[in-house]
Design goal:
The protein is mainly beta. Strand 3 and strand 4 form a beta hairpin. A 13-stranded mixed sheet has the order 5-1-6-8-9-10-11-12-13-14-17-16-15. It has a four-stranded mixed sheet with strand order 4-3-2-7, with no helix packed on it. The chain has helices at residues 22-25, 30-34, 224-235, 242-245, and strands at residues 3-7, 15-16, 37-40, 43-46, 51-54, 60-64, 70-71, 81-85, 100-103, 119-122, 142-148, 162-167, 183-186, 202-205, 216-221, 247-254, 262-270. The protein is 9% helix and 30% strand. It contains four helices and 17 strands. The relative contact order is 0.09.
């Protein structure tokens, strides 16, 4: 039987719940879990003051309720699975290296900051700074996958080094800003200043997008590697049109104020046979 937590006391201020992670819950009884401390304002409070606890942890954790004010769920997890039935708060999956988090709702800012492995699925939309680096940190996401079925805010993939971010809807401004490597695929629209300061990496858009003047047209081609990414995303339930898989893409190189080794691929048309 998996472990279930149900939020029954809505926090009036953000609740920092870094202990809601497989490594912290493994091997604990229900009473032990209830006694774990959470940061609530300037106080330490027991987890049991906010959550009802059922079952035992067998590698999978289900959490129910509006967690939009609950931060740091799944922080630094390396294995296991967390399913959140409702919205999730900031810093979801901070620094995680393995396992999977599924949010059946929306997620706030800072989804998967500086994660190095594992997968985060958000069935709704997410806020700003998805997969990003914290201010002053040299690199953001360094591996793993973040899949958002709705929209995302600004600075998605800020300084990401490796991994995949896929967005089913629109992405805000500065997508891939200061990107070091990795891939960002956006099925909807891109905001302004996409790829500003990027050194390497790939940003893909299925719609025409505003491009900075420091990016230059290189060619139009059929990128074979993208086919594998798109088939993978289709299997995860993202609405991948067949034309995208066999399509031709404009390749724009940039950012020339940096190494000029990054690329933005913009879907142009279905490849003729």
């Amino acid at each position: 039987m998996s472990l279930s937590l149900e939020l029954y006391t809505a926090p009036r201020v953000p609740l920092e719940a870094e202990v809601i992670s497989p490594a912290a819950l493994k091997g604990l009884s229900a009473s032990g879990i209830a006694a774990l401390n959470l940061n609530y304002g300037n106080e330490l409070v027991p987890l049991g003051d906010f959550f009802r606890i059922k079952g035992s942890f067998n590698g999978e954790l289900h959490i129910a309720g509006d967690l939009s004010r609950v931060k740091l769920v799944g922080a630094r997890m390396s294995a296991g699975r967390i399913v959140i039935q409702g919205d999730a708060g900031m810093h979801l999956g901070l620094g995680m290296s393995g396992g999977e988090i599924e949010v059946r709702g929306n997620a706030a800012d800072w989804v998967g900051p500086e994660m190095s492995g594992g997968r985060i699925l958000v069935t709704g939309s997410a806020g700003h700074m998805v997969g990003a680096a914290y201010r002053g940190s040299p690199a953001g996401m360094q591996g793993g996958e973040i899949i958002v079925y709705g929209n995302v805010g600004n600075e998605t993939g800020n300084a990401m080094r490796r991994g995949l971010i896929a967005v089913g809807g629109d992405s805000g401004d500065f997508t891939g800003v200061n990107m070091l490597a990795g891939s960002i695929i956006v099925l909807g629209s891109l905001g302004a200043r996409t790829g500003a300061g990027m050194k390497r990496g790939t940003i893909v858009s299925m719609r025409d997008a505003p491009v900075l003047p420091t990016f230059s047209y290189a060619c139009t081609y059929h990128p074979l590697f993208l086919r594998f990414y798109l088939l993978h995303l289709a299997a995860l339930g993202l609405p991948i049109e067949p034309d995208y898989i066999d399509g031709r893409y404009q390749r724009l190189s940039g950012d020339s104020i940096e190494l000029n080794r990054g690329e933005i691929l913009i879907y142009e048309s279905r490849r003729s046979t």
